[in-house]
Amino acid sequence: MAKLTDLTLKAAREGLAARNFSARELAEAHIKACEAARPLNAYMAETFDQARAMADGSDRRLKAGEGGLLEGIPLAIKDLFCTKGVLSTSSSKILKGFKPPYESTVTAKLWQAGAVMVGKTGMDEFAMGSSNMTSCYGAVTNPWRRKGDNKPLVPGGSSGGSAAAVAARTCLGATGTDTGGSIRQPAAFCGLVGLKPTYGRCSRWGIIAFASSLDQAGPLARDVHDTALLMRAMAGYDPKDSTSVDRPVPDYAAALNGRVKGLRIGVPKEYRVDGMPAEIEALWQKGIEWFKAAGAEIVDITLPHTKYALPTYYVIAPAECSSNLARYDGVRYGLREKGADLAELYSKTRAAGFGPEVRRRILIGTYVLSAGYYDAYYLKAQQVRTRIADDFRTGFERVDLVLTPTAPSPAFGIGEMMDDPVAMYLNDVFTVPASLAGLPAISVPAGLSADGLPLGLQLIGRPFDEETVLRAAGFMEEAAAFKAEPAWLGEGRA
Amino acid sequence: MSAIVEGRTGPFEMVIGLEVHAQVISKAKLFSGASTAFGAEPNTQVSFIDAGMPGMLPVINGLCVEQAVKTGLALNAQINLVSVFDRKNYFYPDLPLGYQISQFTKPIVGKGIVTIDLPDGSTKDIGITRLHLEMDAGKSIHDIRPDATHVDLNRAGVALMEIVSEPDIRTPEEAGAYVKKLRSLLRYIDTCDGNMDEGSMRCDVNVSVRRPGEGFGTRCEIKNVNSVRFVMRAIEYEAARQVGIIEAGGTIDQETRLFDSQKGETRPMRSKEEAHDYRYFPDPDLLPLRLDPAWVARIKAALPELPDARKERFVRDFGLSPYDASVLVAEKENAAFFETVAKGRDGKMAANWVMTELFGALNKKGLDVTRSPVKAEALGGLIDRIKDNTISGRIAKEVFEIMVETGRDADAIIEEKGLRQVTDTGAIEAEVDKVIAANADKVAQIRAGKEALKGWFVGQVMKATQGKANPAAVNQILDKKLKG
Amino acid sequence: MAIDRATVLKIARLARIEVRPEECDHLAKEISGILAWVEQLGEVDTRNVEPMTSVVAMELPRRADEVTDGNIRDAILANAPEVEGGFFVVPKVVE
Questions:
Q1: Is B266 on the interface with C (CB under 8 A)?
Q2: Are residues B280 and B348 in the same domain?
Q3: Are residues B146 and B183 in the same domain?
Q4: Residues 55-94 of chain C whose Cβ lies under 8 A from any Cβ of chain B
Q5: Quick one: closest CA in B to A379, which residue?
Q6: How far apart are the C-alpha atoms of B316 and B308, rounded to whole Å?
Q7: What was the pLDDT predicted at B270?
Q8: Percentage of chain C surpassing pLDDT 70?
Q9: What part of B 73-92 touches C (C-beta under 8 Å)?
C-alpha cells in the first residue's frame, strides 16, 4: 500500500470507507508528516491532540456507517479562521494569545462533515501579502526548490502556510482565503489547485476580516476532485453573514465529467502584460491549445479596465482594512502595550502589534478615506471597480469562462522583492480583477518553469458557476498531466 | 424668555437646531441578537459582535428598520427606498468595532416636518433634515477608580434613531416644545419610550446667535443633554455666553461643549481632539437597504391617529381651545382618557375636569393617568350629575376628592353622603325667610343700596342647607324677597 | 500626490499608530509612491458610473427581533488584558 500521506483526499475517503485503514492511522501519518515538515514553518499552531480525538470520533462514526463527506480527512486551517479554543491570530502579534470562544462557520461545516484538524497554518499578517513574509511567526518555506538550487523560496501568499502544508503532504487539503489572489497565487507557487469561490458562496462569519467586500474562503488541494469535495463542504448560506447568498450547494464533484466541447473560452488580450516571462506566455498558449483540441471555442475578448484593477484594489482593500483593523486596540483582547494614557495605549499597542506591511496599508487606507481625499481615491476606485465588473459582465455574454495565467512569475526567493511594495503588489495582477468582480476563479498547476517550478493557469467563471469552473479545471488538469513533485517530498522521504 | 437676547449693544437672535437620539423600541439590538433591556449586570447583554470580536458580522434587525420607517412617516417625512449603512470611524473604548455603523449620505428618512405647539395656542413648523439608524456605543464609567475607566458594552449596538432638525428653532421654549412634541409622536407610535432619565432620548443642541436679519453665526454643539428643562437652560446659558463674547469683541469657536446641570452652565469638552475626521464609507459587511413601497404603504396605513390630527379633532368635535387640545393629546393615554370622559358630554367641561382636577390630583399623588384611582367612566358619571343638577359644581369637587381617595363611583358617594342638590323652592324659601327674619339690619342696608351684601345672604342660605341648595334658585328667591 | 511628514503624522494619529520621527520620511516616500501609482485611476472615465457598493446582487437580509444572544460575559471578557467587576478596564479617559 502507498504511504497514507501520498493519497489524495478522494482516495483516502475510499480507503476509509473500505476500512483499509482507520481515521486515527490516517491522522497519525499526517501528524508524523507535520512533525517532519516543521522546518518549512507551515503551521503556526499544531493541534495533534485535537486531531487524534477528532479522528477517533470519525472512526466511531465510520464504524457505525455514519461518516460525513469528509469523515476522517486531515485538514490544515489558515490562521485567519477563528477556531474555538485554538490560537487564532491572523499571524499578527496584535492578536497574541487570542483563543476565540467561537468557531467560524466554514470550519464548523468542515468539522460537521467529519474533517480532522491537524493544525493552523501561517500566513501573511492579516492576509496582506503575496509571499508569506509578513507573518509574525516568520516566513513559511515553499516545499519546492529550483532545479539544482537550494535557495528557499516563498510559498506565495497570503495562504502560503496552507499551500506549503498541502504541498508537503502534511494534510489532504487546507482552507485558504482569497482577497486579491491569496488562494490562487500560493496554489500556483506550490503546484496545487486553489479555488476562490464567488463572493457570497462561503460564509465570512468567524474569518478575521481583511477587506470585507473581497474576502472569500476557499479550498487548496492536490487536485481538482479534492477541491470540489472540499468546496461542497465549505460552501453554503449563513444567516449570520449578510453577504452570504442563499442558494443550494451543488455536488461539485459530480460536475467533473471532463467535457469541454462547445465551451466558449475567453482569452482577454489585456492580460498580455508588459514584461510577462515568455514561459508564462507559452504556458497560457498551451492551455488555449488544450481547449481548442478538445472542441472548445476560443474567443478573443477584451476586458479594457484590467490594468486599473491593481490600483483599484490597492485603494479599496487598504480602506476597508483600515476600518476592519480598528478593533485591535488593546482593550478587549490581544496585545496591550502600556501607555501613560489611553491615547498612548492605543498608538503604542497598534505600533507594536502590526507589522510594516499592515501598518502601511492602514495608513494608506486612512488617507484615502480622509476628508478631502475620499472622492479622489476611494469613490473613484469604487467607480472603476464597477467598470471592471461591467467588463466581465460584457465578456461573459460571449464566453463561458476566461482563461489566464495565475501569476506573472513562479515562486521567488525568500527575501526577494521586499524593497518595493508596488513590485510585490504586481504579483496579484492576474488574480485581482476576478476578486474585484466577485467572480469564482481557480488556479490549476499546468506546467513547470525552466528552473523546475510549478506554474498555474487560472479559469474565471460567471457568478456561482463554480461547477463549470471546476469541470474545465478538471479537463485542464488531465490535459496538463502535471506529475512533478516538490523537492521536499524527496528530502522528506529520505 | 423671548426670541431676542438683549445685548448691551443691541438685540441678538438665537438660532437653534437639535439632534435627538431616540432609542428604538426593540427586544434585540440593531445588529446582534443581544437584549436591549435596561439595567442589567455589566457586559451580560453583549454578543461577540457587540464586543467587536474578530470575524464577527452584523445582521440587521428588521423591526428596527420598520420602527425607523414608522417614525419617518409620523414626521411627515420622505422615506428613502434605498439607504446605505456607513461606518463612522473613531477610537473610543466604548466603541468596540473602532467604528459606529450609521447612515451618512443616504439615510433611511429624508426631509419632514414637526409642528410644535406653543403656550399661546399658536403652532410652528420645524423642519426635519433627516432621520437615520445607527448603533449606540457602550458606557464608560469614570468613577469606580481614580486611575481607570470601566467599560460596559450592554448598550453597545442598541438601535438609535438620530433625528436632526433644521436650524428653525428660535427660542428655548420652542426647543422645549420641539423635544416634547417629538417625544409625544414617538410614544404615540411606540417606536421610542422617550424616557430621558434612562437615556432613551438624548439631545445634542446646536446654538448660535446673530444680529436679526444677518446670516448664521458660528455654532457650538452642546452634547448629551438629557431633559427638556436642561435643553432650555443650556440654550439660555449658551446664547448669553455667545452674546457676551461677541459684544466683548471676541469670536465664537466652533466647538463641542457639555452642559453641567449642577452649575447650569456649558463648558468645552476637555478632550480636545484634533478636528474629527470620521472617514465615513459604506459598510462592506452590509448591503444597501431597499424598501418595498407597498410595505411602506402598509405601515403608513396602519399608523394610529397622531397628536396633530387628534388635536384638530378635539378642537372640532369638543370645542376645545387649541392649547387645551394640545395639552390633552401630548400623551396618548391622557388623550384616550379624555375622550372616554368627553364622549357624549360637554367637551369643554370634560377638558376642565381632566386638566384641572384630575391632573392636579394625579400630580399630587405622583401617578400617571393609567394608574388613576378615578377611571374615565367614573369621572364621566360625576360630570353627568353636575349636568343633570343632581349636585352643584362645588359639591362635585367634594365628591371628586372622595373618588380620588376611595376609587368609588360618584353616585354611590352622593347617595351615601346625601349630597343631592335641593331644588325644592319651598324648602329654599323657608330657609331664605329664616335668614331674612334674623337679619333685619342687613336687609335694610341692602334696600338702602348696599347690593354687595347679597352675597352674604346667599352664603348663609347655602350654609344652612350644607351647600345642597341650588345656587340659581337661592339667588332668584333672594332677589324676590329682598326687593319686597 | 506626494505626502509629507506632517501628513504621515496626521494619518498615523487618526489611525492610532505611533510613528517615530525617524520613520516619517521613509513612510512618506513609500506611501507617496503607492499613491502616485494609484493615481493612474484618473485616466478612467467614470462620469455617471455608480460606485460599487456590493458585488452580490441580493437584498439585505433582515433578522427577526428576537433575543438570541448574550449572557456570555465570561466568554466576552476571557481574552481581555484587564477586567474588574465584570467591566473592561482602560486607563482613565477624560471627557
A1: no
A2: no
A3: yes
A4: 56, 58-73, 75-77, 84-94
A5: B281
A6: 12
A7: 63
A8: 98
A9: 84, 91-92
Whether residues A329 and B98 touch (CB distance < 8 A) is answered with yes
- Note whether B281 contacts A378, CB cutoff 8 Å: yes
The verdict on residue A247 lying in a domain is: yes
Whether residue A178 is contained in a domain is answered as yes
Report how far residue B99's alpha carbon sits from residue B49's, in angstroms, rounded to the nearest whole number. Answer: 12
Nearest CA in chain A to B149: A342
Q: What is the pLDDT of residues C40-66, one digit of tens each?
A: 999 999 999 999 988 988 999 999 999
- Same domain for B379 and B434, yes or no, is no
Domains in chain A: how many in total? 1
Contact B285 A378 (CB under 8 A): no
Q: Which of B247, B270, B299 is the last residue of a domain?
A: B299
- Which residue in the set C15, C35, C82 is minimally distant from A362, CB to CB? C15
Residue A472 belongs to domain spanning: 4-263+398-491
Pick from B367, B386, B417: which residue ends a domain?
A: B417
Classified as helix, coil or strand, A161 is helix
Domains of chain C: 5-41 (1.10.20)
The answer to whether position A387 is within a domain reads: no
Whether A159 contacts A150, CB under 8 Å: no
Angle between helices B62-74 and B293-301 (to 10 degrees): 60
Nearest to A242 among B52, B99, B285 (CB): B285
Contact A383 C3 (CB under 8 A): no
State the average pLDDT for chain A: 96
Chain C residues with CB-CB distance to B141 below 8 A:
87
**What is the Cα–Cα distance from A424 to A426, expressed in whole angstroms?**
5
pLDDT band at residue A184 using 50, 70 and 90 as cut-offs? very high
| B109 lies in the same domain as B251 | yes
Interface predicted TM-score of the whole assembly (ipTM), two decimals: 0.96
Position B225: which residue type? V
Contact yes or no for A327 and B98 at CB 8 A: yes
CATH number for A478 = 3.90.1300.10
CA distance C38 to chain A (A): 5
Distance CA C68, CA B32 (A): 8
A176 membership: H or E segment, kind and range: strand A174-178
Domain containing residue B16: 4-299
Question: What pLDDT does C9 receive?
Answer: 95
B55–A346 CB contact, under 8 Å: no
- Alpha-helical (H) ranges within B41-153 are 62-74
Does B413 lie in the same domain as B467? no
Q: What are the percentages of helix, strand and coil residues in chain A, rounded to 5?
A: 45, 15, 45
B141 in contact with chain A, both atoms CB, cutoff 8 A: no
d(CA A8, CA A10): 5
Q: What is the CATH number of the domain that holds B433?
A: 1.10.10.410
What pLDDT, in 10s, does the model give residues A448-491? 999 999 999 999 999 999 999 999 999 999 999 999 999 999 86
Active site residues of A: 78, 158, 182
B26-76 pLDDT tens trace: 999 999 999 999 989 999 999 999 999 999 999 999 999 999 999 999 999
Q: Which of A333, A342, A360 sits opposite C90 (nearest CB)?
A: A342
The pairing of strands B86-89 and B281-282 is antiparallel
Q: How many structural domains compose chain B?
A: 3
Q: Do B32 and C69 touch (CB under 8 A)?
A: yes
